[in-house]
Amino acid sequence: METSFGDHVAAQVLEEQRRYDVLVRLPAEARRSVDTLAGTLVDTPSGARVPLAQVAEVRLDAGPNTINRENVQRRIIVQANVAGRDLGRVIREVRAAVASRVALPQGYFVQYGGQFEAQEKATRQIAILSGGAIIGIFGLLYVALRSVRLVALVMANLPLALIGGVVMVFLAGGTLSIASLIGFITLFGIATRNGIMLISHYRHLVEQEGVGFDAIVQGSLERLSPILMTALVTGIGLIPLALGAGEPGKEIQQPMAVVILGGIVTSTVLNMLVIPALYSKFAAPPRSVPGGYTGISRP
User: Fold this and answer.
1) Low-confidence stretches of the chain (pLDDT beneath 50)
2) What is the domain partition of the chain in residue ranges?
3) β-bridge mates for residue 41, sequence order
């Protein structure tokens, strides 16, 4: 059958210093349909010739037009596109469905790859780099402020920024992408800057100008305008990007802008409310008492 329907090389001919294969196979009419294939006569051990349909089942069936291999193993790819949903969540659902409903034969296994594999690798790298960035920020702040308590107060602005970023991701569809994670890292720097502006000014008023507990109110009022101006300028610049959902070329910029925009709003508002309260509780000098000033001496 292989000789009849395939290309069996029976001999070679030499013509003008070139060799040509002589192929043996049935004519095209014998291979035109399933019925003609089933009626093809084949030899039996007894010498009789019987139709192929008597010794085999001949039918049309679906199969791969090519056989792919990877690491000397056969491979078949099942692929799909995801739209409007988080890729990681879809893969988790697919894994659960395959594990509960698909019984793989011995020697078969499923491997998930493609964009999900790249995203999973990038997510791990971003998580490691985010931890390194936070440790680096903490170290630089300690070098500048020389106080673990003040550094902790500045770092307290990070969860305040995360609130707005998480809310905006939820309102934008709940899809957490690589671009969104990059937006959160960028947001850490912006939120830390606001805390530094407040804490450093409080410290300046207390140590350099001799202001006592009232440094909290005075410093907050004096730093309100710079913080609002920088937040407003950044937010206005991000609005066109945040509104560009679905536009070509903004697949990375739009999710990142949404996260940063939401984090700036909550970070700016809560920074002016939470940080002064925490400073008054854990780092402010004692209040003045009637008839004199306590705690800080004017230089």
Assistant:
1) 289-299
2) 1-38, 122-282
3) 51
> CA separation (Å) from 155 to 30, 58, 135, 162?
81, 73, 11, 12
* Spatial separation of the C-alpha atoms in residues 202 and 4, rounded to whole Å: 93
DSSP string for 120-135: HHHHHHHHHHHHHHHH
Token duo for residue 141: 């702040």
**Given this model, what pLDDT does residue 195 score?**
85
Residue with tokens 């084949």: 42
pLDDT tens per residue across span 272-294: 888 888 888 887 766 654 433 33
- The tokens for 133 are 């960035």
Task: Work out the widest C-alpha separation in the chain, in whole angstroms.
Answer: 127
Pair of tokens at residue 174 = 């709940």
The alpha carbon of 244 is separated from its chain's Cα centroid by a whole number of angstroms, namely 20
Other beta carbons less than 10 A from residue 172's beta carbon: 16
The amino acid occupying position 111 is: Q
| Element containing residue 298 per DSSP (H, E) | none
pLDDT at residue 285 in the model:
67
pLDDT at residue 288, as a whole number: 52
**What is the predicted pLDDT for the residue at 174?**
66
Residue 298 has what pLDDT?
38
Superfamily (CATH) of domain 122-282? Multidrug efflux transporter AcrB transmembrane domain (1.20.1640.10)
Amino acid at 210: G
